Amino acid sequence: MKRVLAECSASISELKKNPTALLNEANGAAVAILNHNKPTAYLVPAETYEWLMDMLDDYELLRLVESRRAELSDAVEVSIDDL
What we know:
Blueprint: E1 8-11, H1 12-17, H2 19-26, E2 31-35, E3 38-43, H3 46-70
Parallel strand pairs: 1-2
Antiparallel strand pairs: 2-3
């Protein structure tokens, strides 16, 4: 059995009938779209998706900063005036 990672769920038939109503009923939360009672997709409002993408970008930048901090001993010190 697959875990459903949303508080709301709907069948594909319900999604076909009125996707906007599903989003409105979920109040900004993700909606698990079920096919034969198994999650096949998640319907996420655009604002929530954009927030998730921003968080993912921030996480990737954090990983980059942390990897560069680990290589700090290899850094070459440069004066800003020399640039």
